[in-house]
User: Fold this.
Amino acid sequence: MYYPTVADSSIYKLIVITTVFAVIWGLIFKDMLEYELAFWNQNRQSQRKINYQKPQIIIAYLGTTFFSFLCMGAGLSVFKVGNLIAYILGAVVVLPTALFIWLQLGSMLILLVEGGSAAISIEEYLPGEKVENKADKPADNQ
Assistant:
């Protein structure tokens, strides 16, 4: 009698494939966003805001979200809760999180435009010793 070592290997293949596609779409999104930030940085006088809501960037973000949703649903279906419930739970976890991240990204880019990189620095809120600029310290010539 044959006993498979893995109960249903197709679900594990789906998890791996959707994870790979989510990472690929995420890297595409990151590269597009980095390009837009570099373009804005070179043209600060003529461009008042960072144009991150281009269709290409939105599609890349939606691709990342979609494959993350599929990966989450497939991962939850491994626990035999039923495919429908697994994918509903995956949607409940992934979709609001993706929406929150998109809205926060917009807020962070607005802060970056208005106040520069110092506006989004969190170092001043961290406990412990403050990091000082070397330019602020007088040079010791002893």
About this structure: The chain has three helices and no strands. The chain has one domain: 9-119. Helices lie at 9-42, 55-77, 83-115.
